[in-house]
Amino acid sequence: MSTITPQILLRAYAAGIFPMAESAEDNALYWVEPDERGIIPLDGLKISASLRKSVRRGGFDIRIDYDFTGVITQCAARTADRKSTWINNRIVSLYTQLHRLGCCHSVEAWHEGKMVGGLYGVRIGAIFFGESMFSRVTDASKVALVHLVARLNAGGFRLLDAQFVNPHLQRLGAIQLPKHEYHKVMEPLLGQNADFFAFNADRDPEAVLKLAMGQHLRG
């Protein structure tokens, strides 16, 4: 693959494609455009009773863009449950550059001074393209996702792209759109304005849950 710059990467996202690697050890990248695209409807996040309790308990200190490098590094790490990963050094470098440009963000769950879960993704217009997430303790990444959806709804975002749907995301409300339908939804949103930093109530669990469940969109 020829050299990919952050600007090329943003244009690729706007065209509905994104890069992946075969493994963390393989330095090559290839472009991906799924025939069925995963999204999480911003008014359709499914929050189980146990997850609501985790949010309300406030056991995690949620931080935004506090340690982006730490998040993507943890997402790339192999664990007992994940023997391989598609995030190689080129991916880490590219998305870190996007973060420095203000186009890529992390939502982090901290506990007792240690980051124990989080996620990161790319922001263009009124779309957030979710990339990867990690969790080292129960519910850490799920709570981070709840806070992300609350933040997106508060900031006027219209689409949360999940790339692919797996059983974990399906339980959280992810659905699939055919490629042509995804483009019809996605393309008009590229030029719309949204504010990732409009939300400042991560310490208010009831505000987080109300926004994350899209209650403000229904009534």
Distance between the termini: 48 Å
Order the strands across the largest sheet as they lie in space. 4-5-6-7-8-3-9
User: Per the principal axes of the C-alpha atoms, what is the gross shape?
Assistant: globular
Spans of at least 5 consecutive residues whose pLDDT stays below 50 are none
Number of strands: 9
Q: What's the mean pLDDT score?
A: 93
Structural class: alpha+beta
- Radius of gyration (CA) equals 16 Å
Helix content: 25-40%
Tally of domains:
1
- Can you say what the CATH homologous superfamily is? Leucyl/phenylalanyl-tRNA-protein transferase, C-terminal domain
* Topology as a string of helices (H) and strands (E): HEEEHEHHEEEHEHEHHH
**CATH class value:** Alpha Beta
Number of alpha- plus pi-helical segments: 9
Q: What proportion of the residues form beta strands (DSSP E)?
A: 15-25%
According to CATH, the fold-level topology is: Aminopeptidase
- State the CATH architecture: 3-Layer(aba) Sandwich
* Largest sheet entry: 7 strands, mixed
Give an overview of the whole structure.
- The chain has 219 residues and is α+β, with helices and mostly antiparallel strands.
- It has one domain: 3-Layer(aba) Sandwich (Aminopeptidase), CATH 3.40.630.
- Helix content is 36%, strand content 23%.
- The strands form 2 sheets. The chain has a 7-stranded mixed β-sheet, with helices on both faces.
Any key phrases for this structure?
single chain, 23% strand, seven-stranded mixed sheet, Aminopeptidase, 9 helices, alpha+beta, 219 residues, two-stranded antiparallel ribbon, 9 strands
